[in-house]
Amino acid sequence: MRRFTVLVLVLASVLVLALAACSSSASTSGTTTGGPAASSVTVTMQNLAFNPAQVDVATGGTVTFVNNDTVQHNVAGDSWSSGPLDPGKSFTQTFSTAGAIPVRCLIHPSMTMTVNVK
């Protein structure tokens, strides 16, 4: 019985540590957390999606878009575009005006996201 109790405690500890690691990595991904906006954020493009699909960035901050997919993408706002990005390439955009900025891939119209400039 004592071995079973020790095993349960060890498994519970591993689970708590795994959950803590997941929550701490999520806060650095650039997702909206309600805290202060970051001066720079990285967004990946993979599996025909932006990840994360929404980020907060400070006014004057940058978002770097990295194509981790196997196909070409581009990144575009209303008045700017990266041009074609081959797999492994990246593009950085500076956001100077506050507001919710819609971003999309012109090659794959279903790929959309929002940059919240604060």
Keywords:
Immunoglobulin-like, six-stranded mixed beta sheet, alpha/beta, 6 strands, 37% strand, single chain, globular
Shape: globular
CATH fold-level topology:
Immunoglobulin-like
- Give the helices and strands as they follow along the chain: HEEEEEE
Give the tally of β-strands: 6
What is the straight-line distance between the termini? 56 Å
Number of helices: 1
Radius of gyration: 19 Å
Main beta-sheet strand count, sense and barrel state: 6 strands, mixed
Number of self-contained structural domains: 1
- Structural class, by secondary structure, is alpha/beta
Q: Estimate the strand proportion.
A: 35-45%
Mean pLDDT comes to 79
Query: Which CATH class applies here?
Result: Mainly Beta
CATH-defined superfamily? Cupredoxins -  blue copper proteins
Helix content: 10-25%
CATH-derived architecture:
Sandwich
Low-confidence stretches: 4-33
Give a short synopsis of this structure.
The chain has 118 residues and is α/β, with parallel strands linked by helices. The chain is built from one helix and six strands, in the order H-E-E-E-E-E-E. The protein has one domain (31-117): Sandwich (Immunoglobulin-like), CATH 2.60.40.420.
Describe the structure.
It contains one helix and six strands; from the N terminus they run H-E-E-E-E-E-E. The chain is an alpha/beta fold and 118 residues long. The protein has one domain (31-117): Immunoglobulin-like. Strands 1, 2, 3, 4, 5 and 6 form a six-stranded mixed β-sheet that branches. Strand 5 and strand 6 form a beta hairpin. The longest helix is centred in the first third of the chain and has 26 residues, at 2-27.
